[in-house]
Design goal:
The complex is a heterotrimer.
Chain A lengths: L5 E11 L4 E12 L4 E5 L6 H8 L7 E10 L2 E2 L5 H7 L4 E4 L3 H4 L6 H12 L4 H14 L5 H4 L9 H13 L5 E5 L7 H18 L2 E5 L3 H7 L2 E6 L2 E7 H6 L4 H8 L39 H5 L5 E3 L2 E3 L2 H10 L1
Parallel strand pairs in A: 3-8, 3-9, 6-7, 7-8
Antiparallel strand pairs in A: 1-2, 1-4, 4-5, 9-10, 10-12, 11-12
Helix pairs in contact in A: 4-5, 5-7, 7-8
Chain B lengths: L8 H5 L8 H8 L1 H4 L1 H22 L1 H4 L40 H37 L1 H16 L2 H16 L5 H15 L2 H15 L2 H8 L4 H37 L11 H9 L8 H28 L5
Chain C lengths: L1 H29 L13 H11 L5 H13 L13 H36 L4 H15 L2 H15 L12 E3 L2 E3 L4 H34 L2 H8 L4 H38 L5 H10 L3 H29 L1 H4 L7
Antiparallel strand pairs in C: 1-2
The chains are: A alpha/beta, B mainly alpha, C mainly alpha.
The structure holds adenosine-5'-triphosphate, iron/sulfur cluster (SF4) and magnesium ion.
The site of magnesium ion (MG) has 3 residues of chain A, from α1.
């Protein structure tokens, strides 16, 4: 059996501040198979971006990966020397950030930025790389690419810039694309186009995609599986139909209740009363317990571990008890 | 300050998410109080600055002679090298100059002049800048345009050039009637006119922000004078930045005075500031009498360095948005 | 782009007009132009007739117009001290000042940028802290003290470098240069360092701050996510983005360097415009003061204008506001 493209096991990421060591990611495990799209949802601060950054090795001091393993197609990449992980970034893992307006260097032509990236990872000649850059721009849907390649970022609209960013992310045919809220900063009208572009590219090239988003509609339409994060942990993970239609974790239930029915509604996930604890004040036991309608004594002392429930995996004591009584 | 009349400050600012005493909280919370090493340096700087001020204030008690009083100077005592050198003589700790003036005493009195000009210059430029900034921000329109244009233009010219020009014009207008005290006044004015811009910009910016807030309209509605209310809000708001500017400008003002005096356009030889002492001493450098210039120079450098360190620390601690 | 340039030029002219008014006010009211011609024992009647002939009884506006037209032709009146046309005096001394200012600026830029980049990239090294300390001292030591210190070290004690003057100069038309003789070059070293040290400190601090700022931006993070080499990121992307504002500031500072040369020229008895100006202030030679103000302002304004326009050339975002549209 071929290993999954990405396999994360018990990942922990800490930020050392002068007052305390804050654990932003605490025991996160998940896989993404070839050609699969994993959606990641969760409130702001849940640790979605940090997880993505950890995978491509861009956690800067004072942050550090303090435990766990990250494997890319079977090889561990979490504590490679800086130079080796650099060679993987952009080549085997492509990254798309939230804001296309600020992701491109304003002083360089977009063509130069693409050519530079291609030539960093391949040994194409300048002209060949430029040709490839034009093809890439065409592939991501930029009209008249042979002209636009000499434009500067500010000459492109937000949606077009995000297409350029995507071209940059896929220019070395990576196995994995991490897209961190790729549409949040864009007009509603172009969001769908960008999402379907990412989905199409993933399908055409068999790329695994980790798609961080706040948009449950996008999750439902685009992803194969979805992970719900809360306070640096995965509350629930499973096939998208199951998790969306039949969420098990009380937090996931709340989230799914927040799926808008009409387009253009506020898609931010704000339905559950209260807010996520700050990293410095995560309660013992289940981090969700102060907001949970089902919380019982055990939730306040013991941390729930992931429990398999059919195709879903859920970290909640409710299901543990169910299992115990069944046994 | 009585908060009873004014709408609650925290209330007025809560919607913006940035309470106006934020800088103070940030100060208490900032890295500066965390980094002990840095604050040791700052403490030392504060101590040295304080020491300089004390030396200046108590100059007449500490000095062995009044260096401005020719009757106390004796030519037999001229050009004595510092006490610890072979030719040193008590009580001339740091040696004497050409006229038998005790260098240490001259430094104490010079320090007094330098600090007086510096502090008065900073007060004048601060008052001028705050007044102009309030005016520009409150009235807006033409008045604002004119004041800020002048500020822009002036900011491109180094203060020393402006100070020299003010100085030259004053000399031309009053001729040789300028005695020492009025020269001191001219220097204060020259410095005041050179450094007002930064205060004005900061205060103006703050007024512009406050002007559109609801409480100003509310205050006007219930018949309270808006300018007075705004002052109550703007001034505490800008205290942090103004303090930082004032500290950094104190160092600049002292440098400017010293430079003017060094260039021969500042304090006269009969009432020397540190800059004047350095100019005089510079003439003896080639003759090997280094102490006449070295000690005033060291005093000046030490004074400015410690004030700058304080200013740096204040700036980091209060972290105001300076314009 | 054209509109921008035109607007900037209008602003520049506005500034020059304002400075012109100040210069005129100094020339006319602080100084008495009659003094340019007469000696102390000229009778009151004679003075009055001279006043008449100089047009000093005309309406102020007419006088201002006349002063302005003369100034445009570089006629700034006659120096009280030297009894020579001010324009000639300034022209004669300009090369010395410009050469000094250019050398000082080059010195400041080269070392300022190197030290700034180093201390931004290697923030926690000894050398970086040393640079920080040097910069604090550079800001705290008044220019003239630095000059005196250098003179004491390298001229008085070691005897390596001359303590004053320009050394031997070579005439190239009306320009005189010290760059072509050994003694001229030696004479340039200490004044350039003295004059440039403060700017160097500023540039270093600015480069460091800018670079740290740029290194935090999204496009640098994205460049890292693309797997570019550290070298390409630091010296390609980050440096280019850092230098745009830095060069602007350094360019704008050139004007201040010229004005600050007043101090350096006095310390080193450097025969430039600054020394002339200081002597003019001491001797209340108003025509020279007014003319110096005008000249320096002209240089300032021109530099500001050039830098503004250059800036739009370097930064594509500004360039195409009118040009190409997406
Ligand atoms: N450099 C850092 N230093 C300290 N804490 C950090 C740092 N970066 C992230 N964190 C913390 O890690 C936690 C997770 O942040 P992360 O950016 O992953 O959230 P997110 O789920 O992506 O949220 P959003 O939806 O807002 O993007 C947050 O509590 C954040 O404060
Ligand atoms: S573990 Fe307890 S508190 Fe946490 S989600 Fe389950 S029921 Fe709620
Ligand atoms: Mg995020």
């Amino acid at each position: 059996m071929t290993p999954p493209v990405l396999s994360v096991r018990n990942l922990e990421v800490e930020f050392v501040t002068r007052r305390a060591v804050l654990r932003a990611i605490n025991g996160v495990s998940f896989d993404i198979a070839k050609g699969e799209v994993l959606g990641v949802v969760g409130e702001s601060g849940a640790g979605k971006s940090v997880t993505g950054l950890a995978v491509i090795g861009l956690i800067d001091p004072p942050g550090r990966i303090s435990a766990g393993e990250i494997e890319l197609s079977g090889t561990r990449i979490d504590h490679l020397p800086a130079e080796e992980i650099r060679r993987i970034r952009g080549k085997r893992i492509g990254m798309i950030f939230q804001d296309p307006l600020t992701s491109l260097n304003p002083l360089y032509r977009i063509g130069d930025q693409i050519v530079e990236t291609i030539r960093t990872h391949t040994n194409l000649s300048e002209t060949a790389a430029r040709k490839r850059a034009i093809d890439l721009l065409a592939e991501v849907g930029i009209p008249a690419p042979e002209k636009r390649i000499d434009g500067y970022p500010h000459e492109f609209s937000g949606g077009m810039r995000q297409r350029v960013v995507i071209a940059l992310a896929i220019c070395a045919e990576p196995e994995l694309i991490i897209a961190d809220e790729p549409t949040t900063a864009l007009d509603v009208s172009v969001q769908a186009q960008i999402i379907s572009l990412i989905k199409r590219l993933g399908r055409d090239h068999g790329t695994a995609v980790m798609l961080v988003t706040h948009d449950m509609g996008v999750i439902a339409e685009t992803c194969d599986r979805v992970a719900v994060m809360y306070s640096g942990r995965i509350a629930e993970i499973g096939p998208v139909q199951d998790v969306v239609r039949n969420p098990l974790h009380p937090y996931a239930k709340g989230l799914m209740g927040a799926i808008p029915t009409l387009a253009g509604d506020d898609k931010r996930l704000v339905q559950i009363p209260g807010s996520m604890p700050r990293l410095s004040a995560i309660p013992p036991g289940c981090p969700f317990n102060p907001r949970c309608a089902f919380a019982f004594d055990r939730c306040r002392v013991e941390r729930p571990e992931p429990i398999q429930q059919g195709a879903q995996s859920v970290a909640c004591h409710l299901f543990d008890t169910a299992k115990e009584t069944a046994a | 300050m009585s908060d009873a009349v004014v709408p609650h400050r925290s209330e007025a600012h809560a919607p913006s998410g940035r309470p106006d005493i934020g800088w103070f909280k940030r100060a208490l919370d900032s890295d500066i109080f965390y980094s002990f090493r840095r604050s040791k340096l700052t403490m030392a700087a504060a101590a040295v600055t304080l020491l300089f001020f004390l030396l200046a204030i108590f100059a007449s008690w500490l000095a062995v002679q009044n260096p401005f009083d020719p009757a106390q100077l004796q030519l037999i005592n001229s050009r004595i090298s510092p006490l610890w050198t072979a030719d040193g003589q008590s009580p001339f700790l740091l040696g004497t100059d050409e006229q038998g003036r005790d260098v240490f005493s001259a430094i104490l009195y010079g320090l007094r002049i330098s600090l007086t000009v510096g502090v008065l210059g900073v007060i004048l430029s601060g008052a001028l800048g705050i007044a102009l900034g309030l005016t520009a921000g409150y009235f807006g329109g033409m008045i604002d345009g004119v004041i800020m244009r002048i500020a822009d233009v002036q900011l491109t010219f180094p203060a020393i050039l402006i100070a020299l020009l003010v100085n030259g014009v004053a000399k031309s207008l009053f001729g040789n009637r300028l005695d020492e005290m009025s020269m001191l006044g001219v220097l204060v004015v020259a410095i005041g006119l050179s450094f007002w811009v930064q205060y004005a910009r900061t205060v103006r910016g703050s007024v512009m922000v406050e002007k559109n807030k609801d409480y100003v309209a509310a205050a006007q509605l219930i018949g309270l004078p808006a300018p007075k209310i705004m002052m109550r809000h703007v001034l505490p708001n800008t205290m942090g930045p103004i303090l930082v500017i004032a500290t950094i400008n104190l160092a600049l003002a002292i440098i400017t005075e010293a430079t003017l005096s060094f260039l021969g356009s500042g304090m006269p030889d009969t009432m020397p500031s540190l800059g004047t002492l350095i100019r005089i001493g510079n003439n003896y450098l080639f003759a090997g009498e280094w102490w006449i210039v070295a000690f005033p120079g060291l005093a000046l450098a030490g004074l400015i360095l410690s004030i700058n360190l304080l200013g740096d620390w204040l700036r980091d601690a209060l972290n105001p948005k300076l314009r | 782009m054209l509109a921008f340039t035109l607007r900037r030029m209008l602003q520049a002219i506005g500034v020059m007009l304002a400075v012109g008014i100040i210069a005129f006010a100094m020339f006319r009211f602080a100084g008495d132009p009659v003094n340019q011609i007469v000696s102390i024992d000229t009778s009151a009647a004679e003075r009055a007739s001279i006043r008449q002939s100089l047009g000093l009884d005309d309406p102020v506006l007419v006088q201002f117009g006349r002063y302005f037209i003369n100034a445009l032709q570089f006629k700034f009146g006659v120096s009280y001290q030297f009894r020579l046309p001010v324009a000639n005096l300034l022209m004669e001394r300009m090369p010395a000042t410009l050469e000094l200012a250019i050398c000082a600026t080059l010195f400041a830029m080269v070392f300022g940028i190197l030290m700034g980049v180093y201390s931004a990239l290697r923030r926690d090294t000894m050398l970086a802290s040393l640079f920080q300390a040097v910069s604090l001292i550079g800001i705290s030591l008044p220019t003239f003290l630095i000059g005196i210190l250098l003179i004491y070290l390298f001229a008085v004690t070691l005897g390596w470098l001359p303590s004053f003057g320009r050394g031997e100069v070579v005439k190239l038309g009306w320009w005189t240069t010290g760059l072509l003789t050994l003694s001229g070059l030696k004479a340039l070293i200490m004044p350039s360092i003295t004059l440039g040290l403060f700017q160097m400190t500023l540039i270093m601090r600015l480069v460091r701050a800018e670079m740290l700022e740029v290194l935090r931006t999204d496009y640098i993070r994205f460049a890292r996510a693309r797997g570019l080499t550290t070298r390409a990121i630091h010296f390609g992307h980050a440096l280019k983005n850092t230098l745009v504002p830095v060069i602007t500031v350094a360019g704008l500072q050139f004007g201040s360097v010229i004005a600050f040369s007043i101090i350096t020229e006095t310390v080193f008895q450097w025969p430039g415009m600054g020394l002339l100006f200081v002597q003019a202030v001491q001797n209340v030679d108003i025509p020279i003061m007014a003319a110096y103000l005008l000249m320096v302002s002209l240089i300032f304004v021109t530099i500001n204008l050039v830098v503004d326009i250059l800036y739009t050339v370097v930064d594509p975002r500004l360039r195409s506001t009118v040009g190409r549209t997406a």
